[in-house]
Specification:
The chain is mainly alpha-helical. The protein has helices at 29-42, 45-56, 64-71, 75-87, 106-116, 118-124, and strands at residues 61-63, 91-96, 99-104. The radius of gyration is 22 Å and the shape is elongated.
Length: 126
C-alpha cells in the first residue's frame, strides 16, 4: 500500500540541473556473456562452498570423494555442481584413475574480477 507524501518535506532543487555525463563504455557482448556465466556458476551456496573447500585444501586440489564427504551430498549432486564450475572455466579437472581431481583456475577468477570490476582493482590498493 502506498503511503501519501503529505507532510514530507520536498527539497527544492529546481536551480540545479542534472548534467548528463558519459558513464563509460559497455562491456563487449561476448565478454559479458562469459562474465555472466561465471558469476551464475559462483552464485550458488554449494558451488561457493566447493570453491572454498578447494581453496582451503593444503594441496590446492580435491577429489570428488573429498567433496562428497565434506558437503554431505551424494556424488552425482557434487559432480553436477563441479561440472557447472568446470564448464564456466572456474575449475580445472584432472582425471586420475577412477577419480577426478579439481583445482581452482585462478587466472579465470582474476579475469572475472578485472573485467567485471576494473576500477575496483585500482581502488583495492588504496
Amino acid at each position: 500500500m502506498a503511503i501519501p507524501a503529505v507532510g514530507i518535506p520536498i527539497e527544492d532543487v529546481s536551480a540545479e540541473r542534472c548534467v548528463p555525463c558519459s558513464p563509460g563504455l559497455l562491456i563487449d557482448r561476448g565478454e559479458v556473456e562469459l562474465l555472466t556465466a561465471r558469476l551464475k556458476a559462483m552464485a550458488d551456496q554449494t558451488r561457493l562452498q566447493i570453491v572454498h573447500l578447494i581453496d582451503q585444501s593444503p594441496t590446492g586440489e580435491l577429489c570428488v570423494c573429498d567433496l562428497t564427504e565434506s558437503l554431505d551430498l551424494a556424488q552425482p549432486t557434487v559432480s553436477r555442481h563441479l561440472k557447472i564450475l568446470t564448464t564456466a572455466g572456474l575449475l580445472r579437472r584432472e582425471q586420475r584413475g577412477t577419480w577426478a581431481w579439481f583445482s581452482i583456475r585462478w587466472d579465470a577468477l582474476r579475469e572475472l574480477r578485472e573485467h567485471a570490476f576494473p576500477r575496483g582493482i585500482d581502488r583495492s590498493s588504496r
